[in-house]
Amino acid sequence: MMRWGLVLALGGILAARGSAGGAEPPLLKVGTLAPEGSSWHTILGEMGDAWRKAPGGGARLRLYPGGVLGDEPDLVRKMRIGQVQGGVLTVVGLAQIDPSVFCLALPMMYRDYAELDYVRDRMGPMLRERFLEKGFVLLSWGDGGWITFFSQTPVLRPDDLKQRKFFIWAGDVSAESLWKSAGYSPVPLAAPDILPGLQTGLINTYSATPLSSLSFQWFALAPNMTELKWAPLIGGLVLTRKAWERIPEPSRDAVRAAALEAERRMMREVRSADDKAVDIMREKGLKTHALTAEQRAEWQKTFEEAYPLMFGKVVPEEAFREAMRHRDAYRAKPAGP
Questions:
Q1: Residue 24 DSSP symbol
Q2: Do residues 35 and 216 lie in contact, with contact meaning Cβ atoms separated by under 8 Å?
Q3: Closest of 73, 30, 78, 80 to residue 237, by C-alpha
Q4: CATH number of domain containing 273
Q5: What contacts 20, CB < 8 A, 6 or more positions away?
Q6: Sign (positive/negative) of CA torsion 283, 43, 120, 81?
Q7: Whether 330 contacts 126, CB under 8 Å
Q8: How far apart are CA 203 and CA 120, in angstroms?
Q9: Closest CA to 116 of 268, 323, 265, 334
Q10: From CA 328, how far away is CA 337, in angstroms rounded?
Q11: 257 within some domain
């Protein structure tokens, strides 16, 4: 009887522990192209620590960096079929879910981060709602820096680019068609194929941020950088709605708060890292090429003339118009003291 009493007592203790501790926190597999050891990877890892410690059970983040789960279109497909639960995506991956997000990354539309932040703050609620309707939760935004051209020989004007074989994201059929119709020679590749593409001569030019170029060491094979910040590389942390709903409800506020803290850190740390990356690459042989006012005007005219061609193919016109309205409202504000 005493033995049975001990067994029953032990069973009661284990049951109580199970009840108090609840089920094991859900495991969320999240992929990203960000390389291991990069600023993005570090910030996301610390966010994962906060998720695990969240009150109410939290969540476990298993991060797959460096594109080991495939390129961003592949990652979004895997999210849709439930193989992975989330992704830290650039605008290319986000647009696979809803192309309206491209209104935040159109070439030559924003002069600086102040304009981008102003528009993103006002477009954010609408974009989050559109993602939710499609089965995804956009937890936070991220920044990758400003995109420019890296090439084996300098690219100073649009006509120079027409003579180059340059990388574009594989699977973006609309963008490929637009470039080709304007007389350019884009080469669709997965991002992990940029380095072998440069090594084999498949491409001789690519567009990326300085921090990305340094992190992946692409610049060593394309050591000329055009000083033209022609588009911001925006990104975001996305979970499937199913994965989000698996997180215990008492934990969700803390999980979201940790994601927003990661967003703030990326905006602070990654933005400042772009200029530092250029300095490091210069020490390793990178040549940077300043543009004249005339050359900048050529790029501005080239990209702006392409906007109407993008409507319905790259970005919905209504999203573009709303973003443009907010941008122009910011520019019309009186200058500060």
A1: P
A2: yes
A3: 30
A4: 3.40.190.170
A5: none
A6: positive
A7: no
A8: 33
A9: 323
A10: 20
A11: yes
Residue 60 lies in a domain: yes
pLDDT in tens, the chain (337 residues): 333 343 333 343 333 333 334 578 999 999 999 888 888 899 999 999 999 999 999 999 999 998 999 889 999 999 999 999 999 999 999 999 999 999 999 999 999 999 999 999 999 999 999 999 999 999 999 888 999 999 999 999 999 999 999 999 887 777 888 899 889 999 999 888 999 999 999 999 999 999 999 989 999 999 999 999 999 999 999 999 999 999 999 999 999 999 999 999 988 888 888 889 999 999 999 999 999 999 999 999 999 999 999 998 899 999 999 999 999 999 998 875 5
> Which pTM value belongs to this model?
0.87
| Residues facing residue 186 across a β-bridge | 166
Burial of 287 (0-12, 13-18, 19+ CB in 10 A): exposed
Which tokens belong to 228?
């033209």
> Within a domain: residue 256?
yes
Flag whether 92 is in a domain: yes
Residues in Cβ contact with 240 at an 8 Å cutoff, skipping those fewer than 6 apart: 79, 80, 82, 85, 86, 135, 136, 137
Per the structure, the complete domain to which residue 104 belongs is given by: 25-332
For 269, how many CA atoms within 13 A lie in the half-sphere containing its CB?
14
Q: Which residues of 60-94 are buried (b: 16+ CB within 10 A; e: fewer)?
A: ebebbbbbebbbbbbbbebbeeeebbbbbbbbbbb
| Number of domains composing the chain | 1
